[in-house]
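Trying the structure run again after the queue cleared.
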Amino acid sequence: MFDNTTYSETGQPVKKLRRSRTDKMLAGVCGGIGKLLGIDAAIIRIVLVAATLLGFGTGAVIYLICWIVMPEETAA
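Done. Tokens:
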């Protein structure tokens, strides 16, 4: 349904980092990163929670920055 892939002038696919509209729990940041990297969003979520708990809130800060900076994917 939603696709983060656009095409360059040469016709090569170019993926863009966008917040997911479908695979989200809070803002879609982990879903968007998971789509871009081709891995499950749950893995990204686990890494961010671990970074939050073990890194004195680092994961939460990274998530908030990504939420502000990353645009939401558009409807196809």
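The mean pLDDT is 88. Worth checking whether this holds up in the mutant runs.
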